[in-house]
Amino acid sequence: MEEVLARGLSFRAFLCWLTVYRRTWRSSIWSSVLGPLSYLGAMGFGLGSLVDKHGTASLGGVSYLAFVAPAILASGAMNTAMSEASYPVFGSIKWNRIYIGAQASPLRPADIFRGHLMFMTARIAMNTAIVTVFMCAFGAVKSAWVVLAWPAAVLTGLAFAAPIAAWAVTVTSENSFAYLFRFGMMPLMLFSGTFFPLSQLPGWLRAIAYATPLWHGVALCRGLSLGNADLPGALGHVAYLAVLAAGGIWAGDRAYRRRLYV
Prior knowledge:
Blueprint: H1 2-24, H2 29-53, H3 64-85, H4 87-94, H5 98-103, H6 109-137, H7 149-168, H8 176-190, H9 203-210, H10 213-226, H11 231-260
Helix pairs in contact: 1-6, 2-3, 2-6, 3-6, 3-7, 3-8, 3-10, 6-7, 6-11, 7-10, 7-11, 10-11
């Protein structure tokens, strides 16, 4: 009974964020629709035309568009997760004070966290669904297994959103997020197999890249999109991302309780 009540309260917190988004969704059109469309077109067709002229053997014999599109799907999920789990969490305490208002309701800190995390996951799902549609429209998909690349991308985003939200609720200055994007997001996109095969990296750097969550998301989405994913490898990627997401949820429950408990 208590667990059912907890899920109901978390869902109420989720509905609160949906109400807010209903009034602000227009501002997200660029990041959700036009941004991925332009990015996929520029990287896949613009840069891709130059890469394909010099051969695609290092890409596994597929076009650069087919190689980079699923990576953009996974990295886009990471970008959405970082955006939704950083400033909005901090702002809910300092700026619009949504969390402070929620404290005056029957919602517990864990309900506030999980409801907001549900909304973050919904935003990740929305954005990655749009990118998946663009991939199909551009002919970047080589296998029907791409239908599983969408939930794989959502899981990738959740693996970032949960731990980042757990950290963001403890932050006292918004300047900290600049370091997250500059020294977290950018290196991950550059050195996690997003734009070129990891085989082109030095051995020591390649080992580090294999330990990053984005590489697991990229490898999983790329394998499903190209149809060459093997079951043990795919399960390994899923397990890595699921453990990271579960750890983030565990940490978030405790961080929100310490920060919001009155």
